[in-house]
């Protein structure tokens, strides 16, 4: 069997690598929303200095989360080893942007491998392949990967791998194997913690529930004093290793001081999986910054496969073997986490992000449902095997269907989304890159730039790593609070996007605005339809 | 405590043939390197090679030597090192003032760990043969 497993995991990896790197294959210019620029830059500055610590440069610290209530201003929002992954790829990969984005893609797409690992071990090769294959095209994961909440998406890919290691630890029959899986659990769980604590919460919740379910099933607590005493050395080493990774970065997670007082509300949400139609912004197609497609089950899963989630749950509830309890614990953990907003412990935005934990779970349930149904019929092993492989082929066809014969599967949308992600002028153009490099080479280190005219907010933010200066759309508050002085300010008026788009009237009105607002300022840069002004700046926003 | 039987399909000892999982994984890794080079040029090739060498390969070699199956060792190696390797490099860079040199030292330490496990394993009894209480025989 080993060769088929290796072939399956290899095929999943290669397919996912091709698909998820499509945006980098199209262009080596970095892409994503504002968060993407922030997270990229926090690793990029490590690469540029060939050093890493807890701090971030001022040009990044002026942005959000620059303040840590324990460490002070200009500190990293994430444990530094997360962006360090990107910096190491840049250092050894040989390209500042392509190498970084390959590393991000590999880490973000890995749910296909972790889901395969878990489902293959618990339910066999065919369900494992189906669940892993479907995860490659999970549009919800792809959306977050493209937008840039990459710490979160990477962290959630670890959940099936953590569950696998813990399950193997709990069920292995030799002490040596138990120890291997104990250390594997610690390594995978602490790695998950490095990327985002939300994913780790989902893993730990599942582990606690699984242990509890085992306790009930076996009618005795899964950990005995005798077992712990006989194996105390390995347990101690594992615990110390875990703490060595966890403790130094606790201050990062505690630093932002994000608190949500417990306040129960909107109990009706408990009776639906993730209700959003009562949320502000739903009618406008956007809830808490997420487009409605993010919550839409029928867009994320194939319509015909959705009912099989219930079939999978039914199989688990009827059978209740140890492996089934693990998946039930996972399902219950995800349910609790995505409803924490009802308690006030999380806001809806954070709870919505927990939905990333749902896709691997649902595809696992669908795979269990598809194959599990066969086991309830008394048929010969040969026919069962033929049925299983036929179902697998049908499943793959549904996932990749283009909608001509049966409803469209998620693969078509995933391919189109990745292929066309941030195309054309949605990434910073060559003239903006040149201007950013000029800023890097010619402006004082403490200079700050307000940008008007660049057509999207993320493009403006992606000029930060190129220029190694803070470029923003708004500095009014910092000027009024005397955090920065007016002398530090530069104002960029960017016509390059409008020129490339051929929008002459918009460019004319911007030119009129420019003439009125910088009468006493000095034009320090005038190249490729981009102007940069300094001195006597009176405008502190680009609105 | 509930115990379940694992590894019914335990892999056969290594032999140089395509059906051997280890050889197959090596071929898939080479295919991955070629694919990354074709799709993303030399930067793609170097980045995937770097990821395989610094992250996956050392942990994979140790885990397979300790008795894990090829595919599970590969996946656990990929996930288990994604946070722990950069954490080690991060701590070391406070002593060695360069990320590049810190990563190279960590790689050498990984190589030493692999060598240690392989040398030690020559004296080791096969794992998985246990009595009913889980203690090794």
Descriptive report:
The complex is a heterodimer of chains A (543) and B (137). Chain A has 2 domains: 2-23 and 108-418, no CATH class; 428-534. Chain A contains 27 helices and 9 strands. Chain A has helices at residues 2-20, 22-26, 34-49, 58-61, 81-93, 98-108, 111-123, 125-136, 139-147, 150-157, 159-171, 175-195, 197-218, 225-230, 232-254, 297-300, 308-319, 322-338, 348-353, 356-375, 381-400, 410-419, 430-442, 457-467, 476-480, 496-501, 504-517, and strands at 67-68, 72-73, 286-287, 290-291, 448-452, 470-472, 489-494, 522-527, 530-534. In chain A, helix 10 packs antiparallel against helix 12 (175-195), helix 11 (159-171) packs parallel to helix 13 and helix 12 runs parallel beside helix 15. Chain B is 66% helix and 0% strand. Chain B is built from 3 helices and no strands. Chain B has helices spanning 21-65, 70-92, 99-121. Chain B is flat and about 45 Å long. The chains are: A alpha/beta (543), B mainly alpha (137).
Name some characteristics of this structure.
heterodimer; A: 543 residues; alpha/beta; five-stranded mixed sheet; two-stranded antiparallel sheet; 27 helices; 9 strands; globular; B: 137 residues; mainly alpha; 3 helices; 66% helix
Cα-atom radius of gyration of chain A:
26 Å
Largest sheet of chain A: 5 strands, mixed
Biggest sheet features of chain B:
none
- What strand line-up does the widest sheet of chain A have? 6-5-7-9-8
Q: Please state the average pLDDT score of chain A.
A: 92
Number of discrete domains of chain A: 2
User: Over the alpha carbons, how many angstroms does the gyration radius of chain B reach?
Assistant: 18 Å
Order of secondary-structure elements of chain B: HHH
Tell me the β content of chain B: under 5%
Helices of chain A, by number, come to: 27
- Shape descriptor of chain B reads flat
Q: Termini distance of chain B?
A: 19 Å
What is the helix fraction of residues of chain B, given as a range? 55-70%
Oligomerization: heterodimer
Amino-to-carboxy terminus distance of chain A: 62 Å
The coarse overall form of chain A would be globular
Poorly predicted ranges of chain A (pLDDT <50, ≥5 residues)? none
- Given helix and strand content, the structural type of chain A is alpha/beta
Beta-strand fraction estimate of chain A? 5-15%
């Amino acid at each position: 069997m080993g060769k088929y497993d290796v072939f399956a995991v290899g095929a999943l990896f290669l397919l996912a690598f091709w698909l998820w790197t499509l945006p980098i294959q199209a262009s080596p210019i970095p892409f994503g929303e504002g968060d993407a620029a922030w997270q990229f830059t926090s690793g990029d500055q490590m690469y540029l200095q060939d050093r890493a610590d807890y701090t971030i440069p001022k040009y990044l610290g002026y942005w959000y989360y620059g303040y840590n209530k324990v460490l002070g201003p200009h500190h990293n929002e994430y444990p530094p080893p997360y962006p360090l992954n990107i910096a190491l790829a840049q250092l050894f990969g040989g390209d500042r942007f392509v190498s970084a984005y390959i590393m991000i893609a590999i880490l973000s797409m890995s749910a296909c491998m972790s889901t395969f690992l878990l489902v293959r071990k618990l339910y066999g090769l065919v369900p494992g392949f189906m669940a892993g294959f479907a995860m490659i095209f999970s549009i919800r994961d792809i959306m977050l990967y493209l937008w840039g909440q990459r710490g979160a998406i990477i962290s959630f890919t670890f959940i099936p791998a953590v569950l696998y290691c813990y399950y193997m630890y709990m069920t292995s029959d030799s002490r040596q194997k138990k120890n291997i899986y104990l250390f594997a659990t610690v390594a995978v769980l602490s790695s998950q913690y490095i990327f985002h604590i939300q994913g780790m919460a989902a893993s730990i919740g599942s582990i606690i529930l699984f242990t509890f379910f085992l306790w009930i099933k076996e009618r005795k607590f899964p950990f005995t004093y005798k077992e712990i005493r006989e194996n105390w050395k390995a347990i101690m080493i594992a615990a110390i290793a875990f703490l060595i990774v966890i403790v130094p970065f606790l201050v990062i997670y505690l630093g932002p001081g994000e608190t949500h007082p417990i306040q129960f509300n909107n109990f009706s949400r408990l009776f639906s999986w993730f209700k959003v139609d009562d949320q502000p912004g739903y009618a406008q197609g956007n809830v808490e910054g997420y487009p409605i497609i993010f919550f839409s089950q029928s867009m994320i899963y194939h319509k015909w496969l959705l009912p099989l989630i219930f079939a999978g749950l039914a199989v688990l509830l009827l059978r209740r073997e140890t492996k089934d309890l693990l998946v039930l614990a996972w399902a219950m953990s995800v349910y609790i986490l995505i409803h924490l907003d009802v308690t006030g412990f999380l806001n809806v935005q954070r709870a919505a992000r927990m939905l990333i934990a749902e896709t691997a779970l649902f595809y696992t349930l669908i795979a269990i449902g598809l194959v599990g149904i066969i086991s309830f019929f008394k048929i010969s092993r040969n026919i069962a095997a033929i049925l299983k492989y036929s179902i697998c082929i049908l499943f793959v066809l549904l996932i990749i269907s283009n909608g001509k014969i049966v409803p469209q599967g998620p693969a078509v949308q995933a391919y189109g989304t990745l292929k066309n992600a941030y195309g054309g002028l949605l990434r910073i153009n060559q003239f903006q890159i040149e201007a950013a490099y000029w800023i890097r080479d010619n402006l004082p280190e403490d200079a700050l730039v307000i940008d008007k005219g660049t057509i999207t907010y993320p493009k403006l933010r992606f000029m930060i790593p190129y220029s190694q200066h803070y470029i923003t759309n708004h500095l009014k508050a910092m000027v009024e609070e005397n955090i920065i002085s007016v002398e530090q300010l530069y104002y960029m008026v960017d016509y390059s996007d409008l020129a490339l788009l051929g929008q002459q009237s918009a460019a004319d009105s911007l030119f009129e605005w420019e003439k009125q607002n910088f009468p006493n300022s000095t034009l320090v840069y005038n190249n490729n339809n981009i102007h940069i002004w300094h001195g006597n700046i009176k405008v502190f926003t680009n609105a | 405590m509930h115990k379940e039987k694992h590894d019914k399909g335990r892999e056969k000892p290594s032999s140089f043939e395509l059906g051997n999982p280890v050889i197959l994984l090596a071929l898939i890794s080479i295919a991955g390197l070629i694919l990354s080079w074709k799709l993303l040029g030399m930067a793609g090739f170097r980045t995937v090679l770097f990821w395989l060498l610094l992250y996956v390969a050392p942990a994979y070699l140790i885990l397979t030597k300790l008795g894990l199956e090829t595919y599970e060792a590969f996946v656990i190696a990929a996930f288990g090192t994604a946070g722990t390797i950069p954490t080690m490099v991060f701590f070391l860079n406070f002593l060695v003032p360069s990320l590049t040199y810190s990563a190279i030292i960590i790689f050498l330490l990984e190589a030493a760990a692999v060598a240690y496990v392989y040398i030690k394993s020559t004296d080791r009894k096969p794992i998985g043969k246990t009595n009913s209480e889980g203690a090794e025989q």
